[in-house]
């Protein structure tokens, strides 16, 4: 890799024609996930020189289509999309991608107090619906504009009582609302199963507001929320979409190159790469997740609030696992967060192999060995001991230094003291990514694309 400064770093340098004018402005984008690639594309379209540096040896970030379990294309990270996710759907349309549904399920299982209950998927949905209505109650009044989640705090006409209830809703845990009602242990355990997977971490520390915000983005309907987050997949995988965006870029994408430090002020930035190269630019956009920001030294240092958030981390300490079992099994299963896997469902039926590939989610990445058949078998046995695990695999995003977490879910108190801390800047340092999105914050690719676009537009205005 060559060592050089980006064009635009020396504002006194004459242009190629010798006119003495500054060359076009430059931006360094750190991270080649959806946010970084989208930001780079927007900036280039405005005539700005862009270089992207990525710590991994691949693009995509926490979206990664890989061949596993016998050469099947499986998503190690982000998976599901939907036409009601405006930013990702625009990209799906732009690049002529197509989608298809996850399969309908025949049998459902859920665990409470060591007892395995069973029924149909409809039975499970019916049991969940009353729980979800209680958990997401308040979404309409708290989030009248779902893609502007803090709107009622800025509105001077907001009723003071509503404002106080809104602020209070970020405290406690997502399941507190169930423990004071007439819900049974079985029902609370069922809700714990769902949200342990959804929050990718313990429900005891999960902000109640995140669930309500998801509901607001789903027309305040839990059934639509499930459809948006667990139903439709890209025919060509996430790889088909992030490769298409990257294919539109003219500038360099440097892979396998972590960033050591970012020095920034009101005029520009100087970024030191792990190779020792120093890159100067008129602005820098950091798209690393909150869990990976500790790997970068910032000068001047980030604010005390930002530093505290990075140190404490998000609620995202869970995992995603793919499991191949012998035979054809159309199942969905749930178990409270104290079990290794909280949510398990069939995704692919391999008739030629007489096997089924299931996807599972859990709240603690240390509770299972993603690549160990015996570990996966023990987890699956919670529901059915007749399911024989043949292979399994995944990627430990929490242990990965370039993510430090799975998707960004919020601890209690972080809805107001989390992602929004990174929106404003007094220097040429900016942040983008799903972790900082206003709409689908953290959980789906839509938020990453939104943040990439809006941050790029801020930088474009700044550089004018």
Automatic annotation (TrEMBL):
The lineage of its organism: Bacteria, Bacillati, Actinomycetota, Actinomycetes, Mycobacteriales. Pfam families: Amino_oxidase. It comes from the Bacteria. PANTHER family: FLAVIN MONOAMINE OXIDASE (PTHR10742), LYSINE-SPECIFIC HISTONE DEMETHYLASE 2 (PTHR10742:SF410). Residues 34-460 form the Amine oxidase domain. This is Tyramine oxidase. InterPro entries: Amino_oxidase, FAD/NAD-bd_sf, Flavin_monoamine_oxidase. Residues 1-23 are annotated as: Disordered.
């Amino acid at each position: 890799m060559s060592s050089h400064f980006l064009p635009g770093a020396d504002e006194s340098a004459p242009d190629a024609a010798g006119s003495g004018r500054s060359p076009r402005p430059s931006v360094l984008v750190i991270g080649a996930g959806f946010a970084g690639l989208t930001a780079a594309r927007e900036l280039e379209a405005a005539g700005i020189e862009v270089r992207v540096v990525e710590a991994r040896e691949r693009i995509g970030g926490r979206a990664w289509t890989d061949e596993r379990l016998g050469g099947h294309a499986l998503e190690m990270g982000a998976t599901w999309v939907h036409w009601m996710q405006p930013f990702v759907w625009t990209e799906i349309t732009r690049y002529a991608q197509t989608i298809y549904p996850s399969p309908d399920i025949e049998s459902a299982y859920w665990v409470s107090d060591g007892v395995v209950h069973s029924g149909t998927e409809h039975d499970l949905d019916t049991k969940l619906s009353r729980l979800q209505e209680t958990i997401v109650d308040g979404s309409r009044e708290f989030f009248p504009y779902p893609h502007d989640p803090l709107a009622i705090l800025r509105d001077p006409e907001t009723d003071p009582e509503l404002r106080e209830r809104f602020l209070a809703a970020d405290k406690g845990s997502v399941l507190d609302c169930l423990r004071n009602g007439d819900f049974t242990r079985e029902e609370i355990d069922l809700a714990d199963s769902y949200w342990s997977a959804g929050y990718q971490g313990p429900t005891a520390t999960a902000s109640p507001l995140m669930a309500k915000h998801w509901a607001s983005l789903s027309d305040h309907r839990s059934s639509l929320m499930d459809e948006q987050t667990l139903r439709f997949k890209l025919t060509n995988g996430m790889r088909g979409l992030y490769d298409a965006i990257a294919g539109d870029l003219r500038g360099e994408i440097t892979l396998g190159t972590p960033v050591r430090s970012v020095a920034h002020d009101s005029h520009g930035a100087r970024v030191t790469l792990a190779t020792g190269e120093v890159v100067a630019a008129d602005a820098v956009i950091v798209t690393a997740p909150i869990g990976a920001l500790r790997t970068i030294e910032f000068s001047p240092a980030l604010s005390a609030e930002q530093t505290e958030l990075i140190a404490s981390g998000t609620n995202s300490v869970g995992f995603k696992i793919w499991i191949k079992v012998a035979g054809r099994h159309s199942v969905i299963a749930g178990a409270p967060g104290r079990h290794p896997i909280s949510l398990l469902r069939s995704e692919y039926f391999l008739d030629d192999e007489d096997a089924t590939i299931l996807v599972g989610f859990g709240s603690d990445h240390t509770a299972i060995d993603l690549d160990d058949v015996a570990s996966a078998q023990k987890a699956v046995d919670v529901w059915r001991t007749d399911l024989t695990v043949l292979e399994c695999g995944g990627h430990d995003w929490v242990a990965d230094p370039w993510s430090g977490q799975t998707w960004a879910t919020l601890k209690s108190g972080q809805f107001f003291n989390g992602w929004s801390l990174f929106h404003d800047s007094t220097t040429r340092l900016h942040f983008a990514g799903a972790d900082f999105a206003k709409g689908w914050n953290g959980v789906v690719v839509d938020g990453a694309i939104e943040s990439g676009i809006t941050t790029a537009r801020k930088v474009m205005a700044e550089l004018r």
